[in-house]
Specification:
about 130 residues; mainly beta; four-stranded antiparallel β-sheet; 2 helices; about 10% helix; about 45% strand
Length: about 130
């Protein structure tokens, strides 16, 4: 059971990147999934999370209008489209999954309290926004 994240890299300010996350060993049908990030010297924060099956989303205020999360449950994949990137977006990005035991707001709760809800973490992928 694992999540594999990839797609990070170096991008100039104002540029775009698309992160992908692939699940193996389990299906995403009953999981809320999300992207988290941790910048040097800062705490990990939930960036965007998406529920299942209705696709409700939680978005960190600092990325609203710039980032988009999507999921393809059939393929076991989650994506984070990042546009208008800023230097402050530089961080290691992690994908993660929270099992749905009937929490209607799991997409929100998982992003806000990952230590309580996240059961599966992927390895990180580094995103560096710099000129």
């Amino acid at each position: 059971v694992q999540l594999q994240a990839y797609g990070g890299g170096l991008v100039q300010p104002g540029g775009s990147l698309r992160l992908s996350c692939a699940a193996s060993g389990f299906t995403l049908d009953h999981y809320a999934v999300g992207w988290f990030r941790q910048a040097p010297g800062k705490e990990r924060e939930g960036v965007m999370c998406i529920g299942s099956p209705d696709g409700s989303t939680y978005t960190l205020s600092s990325v609203k209008g710039r980032f988009t999360i999507s999921r393809d449950t059939a393929k076991g994949a989650v994506y984070l489209e990042m546009n208008s990137l800023k230097p402050e977006d530089t961080a290691v990005y992690y994908c993660a999954a929270a099992r749905d035991y009937g929490d209607y707001n799991l997409y929100h709760d998982a992003c806000q309290s990952p230590s309580r809800y996240i059961e599966i973490w992927g390895q990180g992928t580094l995103v560096t926004v710099s000129s």
